[in-house]
Design goal:
Blueprint (H helix, E strand, L loop, with lengths): L5 E12 L2 E12 L3 E5 L6 H8 L7 E6 L2 E2 L7 E4 L11 H11 L4 H14 L15 H13 L5 E5 L7 H16 L4 E6 L2 H7 L2 E6 L2 E6 L1 H7 L4 E7 L5 H9 L4 E7 L2 E6 L2 H14 L4 E7 L4 H9 L6
Parallel strand pairs: 3-8, 3-9, 6-7, 7-8
Antiparallel strand pairs: 1-2, 1-4, 4-5, 9-10, 11-13, 11-14, 12-13
Helix pairs in contact: 2-3, 2-4
Length: about 325
């Protein structure tokens, strides 16, 4: 690795498809040994950004630097685990990873040891001789991850690495991703639309929406940035009254912020538990009926996204 603190930098990275701007002037600096999360809804521009950063897609404007050098070609120091699985179904788990290693010219004696180690770390050892076509969805995704890191790249790009996985498989992939950074010193770029995944894994998170970078910071600082207060979600019996109640709530001193999201009213209030009775009394006293209420006392990255866009992330 070089002495440059940043492994990868983008300068005004832009991609247009006809009249549609998929990525709009993206400026990022990603450090050598960090897990960097790209968080945003599906279609936000995360995958397009990644493809340009690793040289798989030419930008319309702007440039990418890897270790300070402008690059336009896919790089051997990069390992890519795409969202859409790339597996040879008739080959065994072992053969898939081994074949990938040969494509990267990993020496044979070293490669065998590496493949066995990857199979063990990804809990695939007992399926080492099974054709990939016989693996479960979760196993195929883990196999794809193993194939992307067999050549020991400095930068590992994971595009929605746990999409469609059950919670147990998801957690085992998370453990492995942490290990790549902590034990092996890799830089990992992770795209996800799952808040919990971004929050648990990322050293820093970039929130991207409609092709634009909204904010970059640590998950903790992002959650603090929303401000104090608790989040209350209210569901009215008559959804047609939402706007009327929203206007009323926004005029209340105790309500810091209020939005209509997925036909619910989501507001931020100091000491929600203490003020809840008073709030509901005011709403119902004005002739509106509440059918459901929930309170969250800790901020999430979902709250950050709502604060920035007025919409839910996972919708």
């Amino acid at each position: 690795m070089g002495s440059n603190e940043y492994l990868i930098e983008t300068e005004d990275l832009t991609k247009n498809f006809g009249d549609f701007t998929a990525v709009d002037s993206l400026n990022l600096k990603i450090k050598e040994n960090e897990i960097f999360g790209f968080l945003g809804p599906n279609g936000a521009g995360k995958t397009t950004s990644i493809r340009m950063m690793v040289g798989l897609l030419s930008p319309t404007e702007g440039k990418v630097k890897i270790e300070g050098d402008a690059t336009g070609e896919p790089n051997e120091r990069v390992g890519i685990c795409p969202q859409n699985l790339v597996i040879w179904k008739e080959l065994t788990s072992y053969e898939n990873i081994y074949f990938m290693g040969k494509m990267y010219d990993v020496p044979s004696d070293e490669l065998e040891q590496r493949v066995e180690s990857i199979l063990e770390d990804l809990k695939l050892t007992e399926k080492r001789n099974s054709p990939a076509s016989e693996l479960s969805g979760g196993m195929k995704r883990r196999l794809n991850l193993g194939m992307s890191i067999v050549h020991e790249p400095d930068l590992v790009v994971l595009d929605e690495p746990t999409a469609g996985l059950d919670p147990q498989s998801r957690h085992s992939v998370w453990d492995y991703i942490r290990n790549l950074k902590e034990e092996q010193g890799r830089c990992i770029i992770l795209t996800t639309h799952l808040m919990e995944e971004a929050d648990r894994l990322s050293d820093r998170v970039a929130i991207i929406d409609r092709g634009k970078l909204l904010v970059v910071d640590t998950p903790e600082d992002l959650k603090k940035s929303v401000g104090k207060g608790d989040s209350i979600s209210l569901e009215l019996e008559d959804k047609g009254q939402n706007q009327e109640v929203l206007d009323m709530l926004r005029n209340m001193d105790e309500v810091i912020e209020a939005n209509e999201i997925d036909e619910n009213l989501v507001l931020r209030v100091m000491d929600a538990v203490g003020r809840m009775a008073d709030l509901t009394e005011k709403i119902e006293g004005n002739g509106f009926e509440i059918s459901d209420v929930s309170i969250s006392r800790t901020n999430t990255l979902e709250d950050v996204f709502i604060h920035l866009t007025g919409r839910r992330l996972e919708s």
